[in-house]
Amino acid sequence: MAKELRVALIGCGFMGRTHSNAYRRLNNFFPVEHRAVLKVICDVNAAKARTYQDTWGYERLETDWTRLLNADDVDLIDICVPNRYHREIAVAAARAGKMVCCEKPLAMNVAEAEEMVKAVEEAGVPNMIWFNYRRVPAISLARQIVEEGRIGRPFHYRALYLQDYTISEDVPQGGDALWRLDAKVAGSGVTGDLLAHSIDTAMWLNGPITRVAARTETFIKERRHVETGRREPVTIDDACMFLAEFANGSLGTFESTRYARGRKNYNTFELNGADGSVFFDLEEPEYLQFFEYKQLQSGKKTESHLTGWRKIHTTNSEHPYMNRYWVPGTTIGYEHTFLNALGDFVMALEAGACAQPDFRAGLQTQKVCDAVLESARSGLWLETGVA
Fold first, then answer.
1. Which regions of the chain carry the CATH code 3.30.360.10?
2. In this predicted model, what pLDDT tens digit does every residue of 200-213 receive, in sequence order?
3. Which fold does the domain 3-133 belong to in CATH?
4. What does the pLDDT look like over 201-246, one tens digit per residue?
5. Which of 40, 100, 207, 340 is packed most tightly, with the most Cβ within 10 A?
6. Class of the 134-382 domain?
7. Which of these, 267, 263, 245, 135, lies nearest to 193 by C-alpha position?
8. What is the SS3 assignment for 146?
9. Distance between CA atoms of 280 and 207, rounded to whole angstroms?
């Protein structure tokens, strides 16, 4: 008989939908012993929670997350609320002995993230941060290629994460929909929201980022605040660019903005090494581009007219995660990255292991984000503290 993984999800926004879908479909695609059970949906807005309950099939709803801490029918608390509330909920959940999963970024700053790591590690509870892009099959394949030594000595890493949804001066800040523009709730702008993904992917593929030099900009200085109705200063970063040094000696460039007209969720990276390169574009998520340099092939020099980039369609059963889905040539989507993450979490749980990325990995990304923001303020190269 299957074991139950009884889930309480806090927050009825966009991320709550992606996580709810993953829990609903887990046992359709991953042959795990645990069966995900949607026990509780929690949100301060009871009407919104009721809609979620009806849509996704949660057994009951709560409007006060503290009631989940002593709930005997809850094993896992999943945090999908704005960043300002991550620390308080995660620490309390861990101390109550609950498993904890948390949306990114882990916290508002390094101090909060350290407290969260300490809480889950002292309690010994399974934990995970939802850096879902690691679970794109093409990105997981890039990791496999690097681990196989096909890139060789790395020289350069470059990443872009571009959107355009705040480019209009009429877009307000704050409230349920646009809390990411309110520094008191989000902590930072594109650095924590978008570059956190880029930084996590970069360090997963290319190792620790040890030093950064950054520049940020806020293009529209004041916006109407949804909650007060007044025009108030905008204190998040609309755009961020930074240079990075990796522990392995390679150099990196990172850029993110919400003012790239025409870009909706343009997320790319390229890693160049002595023996090869990889390139990924989230707008074509089923492909990984790979260039392999070989001086000798089958005992003779490589013929130069046959060298070039390969565009690998990552839909074969031997590609990461794809043996769980369809036949070769058919693709999976954005929602499957969360399902893959959940599958990895549950499989690690059953193996007595710790799924990655856990809160400690999230702390490393938080260290880089904080160093980037401080570098932008000071104009100096700064150490990240990531080992």
1. 134-382
2. 999 999 999 999 99
3. Rossmann fold (3.40.50)
4. 999 999 999 999 999 999 999 999 998 999 999 999 999 999 999 9
5. 100
6. alpha beta
7. 267
8. helix
9. 18
